[in-house]
Specification:
Shape: extended
Number of helices: 17
CATH topology of the largest domain: Endonuclease, Chain A
CATH class of the largest domain: Alpha Beta
Radius of gyration: 31 Å
Strand content: 15-25%
Number of strands: 16
CATH architecture of the largest domain: 3-Layer(aba) Sandwich
Largest sheet: 4 strands, mixed
């Protein structure tokens, strides 16, 4: 170390092209502090290139209760004020423990570049693989990068220097390519996988819906409907035209109902179209519809008006049935989780490990991770990304994966009353052998649905011996809350 520049000198506008490292023991999470770091050191004003590549980079060591926010602010400043692209900024600014990996699309040249494989004995490789490796001028065995990724385990088994090769494979491959897997035990109930079928009430007792619920429904002939049309011309100017017109009659091919019984029958057909409301028996559904229709007739609504508004009636009935279904599912769920019928079977588990099955519709391009199971990472919002960075840095976490959403075959899920399947955000394999399931929930989503998810997550943890974690955003994902979350996770997982 040749020079130490104090904070006072920085405040006075000190600038030096050979300053490479900034250490800050103060909390640095404001935009001004970040700009000071960039302006004084990281941009390296008037610096000339060195032959040693490491000297062409600047470094910052920042102690901050909101360190991840500081990292994010640094990236945003690079993009907003210093001409960096998003990808360049993510490469340039990395928190400690995150490798400087290329997050851009890998070129064919990069994938075919040779990688030296220490200690690999060619004669011990499978015959088809021998043709894909060669010896360089120094006599070292090397193979194209894409071949190394596809056959990492075969190279590991054929190496006489496993420690040296392990370091290369750790740098060049992700865990799934080294055949690392995460097994998450299913939640079993009475010998079967606990699913939404255990919460169903079939048939749905629609006849139990009280008159008080029907009284809440109000049917008034619309008479007229309000319409609006958005028109965009070739110059990009938008024009909105609003209008009022009479409510349209039923389509010509639609058969009109001559009696309340006919309308009840037609409504039931609409309510059961496709595979909808299969838990409502036709006789019970027609009886309920007739009961509702008769109530409106008693209120003086003419049958032709009810017939013309049959689709509004259908939506109202469908909503009543859905409310009843959810109420009964919640009641059954609350009763089941208090029983002792749940168990865990190590042989019954979801396994993450095959990259072919991990195909997220959207991916996270803004961050490179060293402990994620797969090369691609499913999309995350800012709060989820903050938690992912903590998981990637925790020494207690061996491997983690961003769980997929709404894919029952490729993702881990648990049943709950609302949407029938709950997909937690993260699955982590801990070094102590346990599995942690973690969910990040925004404050505006904290409701009865979230409470059901929390309960089934805690039930899974109690039954399987795993670890469940519920993270509330933004309280635990931003500012000082993020640092507290990292400390809490490290303590709980130790």
């Amino acid at each position: 170390m040749k020079y130490i520049i104090t904070q006072k000198a920085l405040a006075e506008g000190w600038d030096c092209s050979f300053a490479y490292v900034l250490c800050s023991l103060a909390v640095a999470h404001s935009a001004t502090s970040v700009e000071q770091i960039l302006g004084r050191v990281l941009r390296m004003p008037q610096a000339k290139p060195f032959e040693i590549e490491g000297l062409n980079r600047a470094y910052a060591v920042v102690r901050s209760d909101a360190f991840m926010e500081t990292i994010r602010d640094l990236r945003e400043c690079l993009v907003s004020f210093h001409g960096f692209s998003v990808v360049e900024a993510n490469k340039a600014v990395q928190p400690q423990g995150t490798p400087l990996l290329d997050t851009e699309t890998e070129t064919l040249e990069y994938l075919q570049a040779p990688v030296v494989l220490p200690g690999v004995q060619v004669h011990q490789l499978p015959e088809p693989l021998r043709a894909l490796v060669r010896q360089n001028d120094q006599g070292q065995v090397e193979a194209p990068r894409n071949v190394v990724r596809a056959h990492a385990c075969a190279f590991a088994q054929a190496s006489s220097a496993p420690a040296a090769l392990a370091g290369v494979l750790e740098q060049e491959t992700v865990r799934a390519e080294r055949e690392v897997k995460i097994r998450i035990p299913w939640l079993m109930y009475e010998g079967e996988r606990f699913s939404s079928l255990h919460l169903n009430t079939d048939p749905l007792p629609v006849d139990t819906i009280p008159d008080e619920e029907l009284a809440k429904l109000i049917f008034t002939p619309q008479g007229v409907v309000y319409t609006s049309v958005l028109d965009i011309d070739q110059q990009g100017r938008a024009t909105v035209r609003e209008g009022i017109q009479n409510e349209q009659p039923l389509p010509l091919e639609t058969k009109t109902s001559e009696t309340p019984e006919h309308l009840a029958w037609d409504l039931d057909e609409e309510l059961h179209r496709g595979s909808a409301n299969m838990d409502v028996r036709p006789r019970a559904g027609k009886a309920f519809n007739l009961r509702l229709i008769q109530r409106f007739l008693d209120q003086g609504v003419p049958l032709p008006e009810l017939d013309r508004g049959r689709y509004r009636l259908k939506d109202a009935v469908d909503s009543l049935w859905s409310d009843l279904r959810l109420k009964l599912r919640r009641a059954r769920f609350a009763g089941l989780i208090e029983t002792d019928g749940f168990a865990a079977d190590p042989a019954q588990a979801h396994v993450f490990g095959n990259p072919d099955y991990y195909q997220p519709p959207r991916t996270c391009q803004s961050q490179a991770f060293k402990k994620h199971l797969f090369r691609v990472v499913g999309h995350m919002n800012n709060d989820e990304l903050a938690v992912a960075r903590i998981l990637d840095a925790l020494p207690e976490v061996d491997t983690w994966v961003r769980n997929l959403d709404k894919d029952r075959n490729a993702a881990f899920w648990l049943p709950y009353p609302e949407d029938q399947a709950f997909f937690p955000d993260f699955i982590a394999q801990l070094k102590n052998g346990k599995v942690m399931v973690l969910e990040v929930k925004g404050e505006f989503l904290e409701n009865a649905q979230s409470e059901d998810k929390r309960k089934v997550l805690e039930l899974w943890a109690r039954t399987t011996g795993g670890v469940s974690k519920w993270v509330s955003a933004p309280d635990q994902t931003r500012g000082t809350g993020l640092n507290q979350l990292a400390t809490e996770l490290a303590r709980d997982l130790a």
